Amino acid sequence: MAVLRSKKMALLLSIVTVVGSLLLTPFLMFLLAIIFLASIGKSLGVRELYIKLLLTIFEYGRINIEVAQKRNRKEESEDEGFSENYSDGKGTLERTRTLSQSLQNGFPPNNQKNGFINHNGMSLISRDDKLILMPELGPTLKDGTAGSGEDEQFKDEYNFNLSNCFDFIKAGMEAIIEDQVTSRFEAEELKNWNLLTRTNRHYEFISWRLTVIWMFGFLIRYCFLFPLRVVICCFGVLWLTICTALVGYIPDGRIKSYIIEKVSIMCFGILSRALSAVITYHNPENRPKKAGICVANHTSPIDALVLMCDNCYSLIGQTHGGFLGILQRALARASPHIWFERSESKDRHAVAKRLRQHVENPENPPILIFPEGTCINNTSVMQFKKGSFEVGSVIYPVAIKYDPRFGDAFWNSSKYSYIPYLYQMMTSWAIVCEVWYLPKMEKSENESAIEFANRVKAEIANQGGLVDLVWDGQLKRTKPKKEWKQLHQEQFTRKLKKHEESEIEKKDE
User: Fold this and answer.
1) Is 108 in contact with 116 (CB distance < 8 Å)?
2) What is the DSSP string of 33-56?
3) What are phi and psi of 399, to 5 degrees?
4) What letters, b where the CB count within 10 A reaches 16 and e where it falls short, cover 144-177?
5) Rounded to whole angstroms, how far apart are CA atoms 83 and 283?
6) Which candidate, 334, 418, 376, places its Cα nearest to that of 188?
7) Backbone phi, then psi, for 116, in 5-degree steps?
8) How far apart are CA 332 and CA 337, in angstroms?
9) How would you classify the pairing of strands 367-369 and 293-296?
10) Contact criterion met (CB below 8 Å) for 84 and 90
11) pLDDT tens, position by position, for the chain (509 residues)?
12) Treating both helix axes as pointing N-terminal to C-terminal, what angle do 226-247 and 418-426 enclose, rounded to 10 degrees?
């Protein structure tokens, strides 16, 4: 028996060796072709065809899911209709048909808006935007405090009733059910299933056709794409470290700046292949120039990778450890970047001074800043910190929009560290995004830094199709400021005082 087992193991090992030798050479040739094309900035269009094929498969899956759901609803309607017909007629069947028809049309039954879940959007409830409690009331002064616009806002509200406080109660209840901030730090909801298991609906088992497609896609992602992407990523990081170390020995000057630009674009182009990134750049004539400040909305650490595949930037941010720390130290050897510790980040003036010194040198590359200070799920743009808008340099806005159908690029740093996030990226279908370079913007004479930041944020949100929010992204880590609560308390108090004054005037008359 032992001899027979040894013969079987030897036969199995020989088969594995032969198959491995047959597949290893094509795999290595394919890997070298990807790296070579990425290093010279060329593409054969394979990734674009891959994306089109995925869209076709997604559409096929959507049709199968809708057919299965309609069949299930029809069976449930027939069962409920038979039960109701036995007791008191066809009332339940008619109500079920009405409910199903309303759901198919995307409208709530009986015109009920509040509490109805719209599957085609992200909002759970319908609300009046005027009732949402904002951080600031009225016009904003240069120092960021609330202005004196309350008198204009309440000049006609002399007819005060006790029921007026219901607006605040309603807004508070809506915020408990669903606020505008918390939903921005969760993965974006998809309208259709993308054949990934990161859903709780178990669509992969709704029909045998989808089960076969899902299993085949699972094998492709984990047995072919993932190992290939890991090898490309390791090579890209190693190549970036070697190139930046060598460039660091070149004396400062125009030659070094030129070499840094070419090496940076080449290395990040290779790293982008580790995610099968398909990036489309619009309006290249507005690409950021040297000694400028480039500001963009922030979804993920790969935002910097996406932009540095097309241009060379200096980065500013907090010092990291682990994998991100390796990249930061490699980049710092060759080009000027601004890395600071968390303790120094609290000193806004020190960071602003280093930023001002960077933009004053005309030979420095444009510096890339994400003014939100945290990652948002690519559905909205939140409050921009005013520090980068106080320097007085030219601002180059950039809007980045990812396609969540192929992979969720949002990094929830409070839930995942960078390595699990990178694993999730590498086991997705691809990273597909659009980048828009917007015309440069400059601060007006009578414009404060906060107003300038809001104007730039509005342009980015408008171009990227994102929601423009006034909230600070740091609310996912900290509690709201007491000043915000006090502003609304003062607002309600002014209403009471105006009502009291108006009543006194009526009595005097």
Assistant:
1) yes
2) HHHHHHHTT---SHHHHHHHHHHH
3) -105, 130
4) eebeeebeeebeeeeebeeeeeeeeeebeebeee
5) 62
6) 376
7) -85, 130
8) 6
9) parallel
10) yes
11) 666 667 667 777 777 677 666 777 777 888 888 888 888 888 888 899 999 999 999 888 888 888 877 887 777 776 665 555 544 444 444 444 444 444 444 444 444 333 333 443 445 555 555 445 555 544 444 444 444 444 444 444 445 566 667 777 777 777 777 677 777 777 777 777 788 766 556 666 777 888 888 899 999 999 999 999 999 999 998 998 888 888 888 888 888 888 988 999 999 999 999 999 999 999 999 999 888 899 999 998 899 999 999 999 988 877 777 777 777 777 877 778 887 765 555 566 777 788 888 888 888 889 999 998 888 888 889 889 888 888 878 999 999 999 988 988 888 877 778 888 889 899 999 999 999 999 999 988 888 888 999 999 999 999 999 988 888 877 776 777 777 777 777 777 777 677 666 666 666 66
12) 120
What's the CA gap between 350 and 235, in Å, rounded? 37
The 3 state secondary structure assigned to 215-271 is: HHHHHHHHHHHHHHHHHHHHHHHHHHHHHHHHHCCCCCCHHHHHHHHHHHHHHHHHH
Question: Helices (H), strands (E): how many in the chain?
Answer: 15, 9
Q: First and final CA of the chain: distance in angstroms?
A: 114
Residue 190 identity (one-letter amino acid): L
User: Which tokens go with 44?
Assistant: 């054969």
Q: Which two tokens stand for residue 315?
A: 């980065």
Closest CA to 329 of 321, 249, 236: 321
| Bridge partners, residue 432, by sequence | 278
Contacts of 367 (CB under 8 A, 6+ apart): 292, 293, 294, 313, 314, 315, 316, 338, 355, 358, 359
Specify the DSSP element, H or E, that contains 397. strand 395-402
Return d(Cα 66, Cα 60) in angstroms, integer. 10
In angstroms, the CA 264 to CA 27 distance is 27
User: Measuring CA to CA, which residue among 245, 185, 223, 272 is closest to residue 27?
Assistant: 223
Residue 293 backbone zone (phi > 0: left; psi -120 to 50: alpha; other: beta) = beta
Burial class (CB within 10 angstroms; exposed 0-12, middle 13-18, buried 19+) of 501: exposed
**Over the range 439-466, which residues count as b (16 or more CB within 10 Å of their CB) and which as e?**
eebebeeeebbbbbbbbbbebbbebbeb
